[in-house]
Amino acid sequence: MEQTVKHRPRLWSFGEYLLEYRGLWGLLLVFTAIFAAVFYGYRLPMEAVLYGSLLCVCAALLLLAWHYRGFQKKMAALSRMEETFLQDPDRYYADDYPPADSLLEQKYQQFLTLISRDRERIRGRSEAAREEMTDYYTMWVHQIKTPIAAMRLLLQQQNGHETQELQEQLFKIEEYVNMVLQYLRLDGGQDLVIQWCDLDRIVRQAVHKYAGMFIRKRLSLNYEPINRRILTDEKWLVFVVEQILSNAVKYTRQGGITVFLEETPEPTLVIRDTGIGIAPEDQPRIFEKGFTGYNGRSHQRSTGIGLYLCRRILTRLSHDIRVESEPGSGTAVRIRLGSETLPVE
């Protein structure tokens, strides 16, 4: 479970307070000096002038202490507002200001409240537009699957090399369609179901999906039962493993793919291939949105979305992903499956 660390409000120094209200207290000192000069000008005894000045100074100090205390409370309230905003800017709404000391400060607060309300209005419209777009593309994805399924049935009734090539291209189309759907659903938290899942079941689902590509490319698969349960969302983790396997099969001409589990220091699923590898200069950017790299551009097979989605999904699941690769020797993708902060449903 994550613990929220609460920071104590910052104490503003007396020097900062005087600097903030230097005009007010400077004016008070000027009035005190004028008061003493006028009394002294009327040839009043020096004791009376000093006594009156001392009374003014004492009253000013009491007023200063009272005003400084109010200043500290106000700044502490503003610091809490700032901390709340920094913790979650998207959900912050400014409606609890400290009491205003002047008409100008009150006007500023009213203006900030209007800005905050307008921000909420714009965000509401943006969320509504995104939900409408998500609903439309979700409907489109489900509708487009019908002709895809029909074409697959028609191709299954035919034989030949061209038919196999068409089936492979149809499979890629379906993959891109599913990627669109997952991309649209990624920001919605309601689609996440965290529970204990069988890791073997997850890996087998992904392997079964790409069994045809393994056969067509004559690639070997080295995989032994893992016998491990992990805390995750099965549907989303299956999608991630599918993307990793898709890249492995796509960029491996000969050899095979190995899937195994490393136990130290945390359970880590490793998917290693004997493919063409990733150029060293491309490796730091492979998780960036839209980045295809040298291999993706030269083979015209990459969309630059797959690994980006994997990183975002695994971050939501409190997992982690690392890639180790050497050009010409293959790539190893490590998915760290630690999930201590996830609630179990």
UniProtKB/TrEMBL annotation:
One of its GO terms (molecular function) is phosphorelay sensor kinase activity. It holds the Pfam family HATPase_c. CDD domains: HisKA (cd00082). PROSITE patterns: HIS_KIN. It is an enzyme of class 2 (transferase). The keyword Transport does not apply. SMART domains: HATPase_c. One of its GO terms (biological process) is cellular response to phosphate starvation. Keywords: Cell membrane, Kinase, Membrane, Phosphoprotein, Transferase, Transmembrane, Transmembrane helix, Two-component regulatory system. The keyword Kinase applies. It catalyses: ATP + protein L-histidine = ADP + protein N-phospho-L-histidine. SUPFAM superfamilies: ATPase domain of HSP90 chaperone/DNA topoisomerase II/histidine kinase. The chain crosses the membrane at residues 21-42, 48-66. Residues 139-341 form the Histidine kinase domain. Its main location: membrane. Its EC number is 2.7.13.3. It comes from the Bacteria. It is found in: Cell membrane. This is histidine kinase. It comes from [Clostridium] asparagiforme DSM 15981.
